From TrEMBL:
Keyword Repressor: no
NCBIfam families hit by this protein: rrf2_super
Stated name of the protein: BadM/Rrf2 family transcriptional regulator
UniProtKB keywords: DNA-binding
Pfam families given in the database record: Rrf2
UniProt KW Chloroplast keyword: no
Gene3D superfamilies referenced in this protein's UniProt entry, alphabetically: Winged helix-like DNA-binding domain superfamily/Winged helix DNA-binding domain (1.10.10.10)
InterPro entries: TR_Rrf2-type_CS, Tscrpt_reg_Rrf2, WH-like_DNA-bd_sf, WH_DNA-bd_sf
């Protein structure tokens, strides 16, 4: 699985908004600067996030972006889906829409299991978790394993 730059930037900008003081709007320029993200690319990402109900924008002096819902109600999976679509797909299809036959038939179970595990992590972690510098215990257990940090 590969996390796109778009998804990475979207999550990082969303966490900045989650950490913003009392929901005060943050300009796209400030978000881009805080996370060292290309401003023009971030503008397009913020439009996607607004269209999907993750952020809302406020115009005028002191305007900018805010989260559209409380940070503890927005998961990383929500943000990734908003900008990239399904969390796991194979040849541009959802695993559950695939059909394999013969010796490859059981491969479908691997792709569905992969999706379930990706979802299990990304759906459990909220923007509030990240903004506070924590992750749920079950996710922390995964990263506590030294092998998780190794590239075989």
């Amino acid at each position: 699985m590969r996390i796109s730059a778009k998804a990475d930037y979207a999550v990082r900008a969303s966490v900045e908004l989650a950490a913003a003081t009392e929901g005060h709007p943050v300009s796209a320029e400030a978000l881009a600067s805080a996370q060292q993200v290309p401003h023009r690319f971030l503008e397009a990402i913020l439009r996607d996030l607004r269209r999907e109900g993750i952020v809302s924008s406020r115009r005028g002096a002191g305007g900018g972006y805010v989260l559209a819902r409380p940070a503890d109600e927005i998961s990383v999976a929500d943000v990734v889906r908003a900008v990239d679509g399904p969390l796991v797909y194979v040849r541009d299809q959802r695993p559950s829409d695939l059909d394999y036959s013969g010796t490859a038939a059981s491969l479908l179970h691997v792709w569905v299991a992969l999706r379930a595990n990706v979802r299990a992590v990304l759906a459990r972690v909220t923007l509030a978790d990240l903004a506070s510098g924590t992750v749920p215990a079950e996710v922390r257990l995964l990263v506590d394993d030294d092998e998780a940090w190794e590239n075989p």
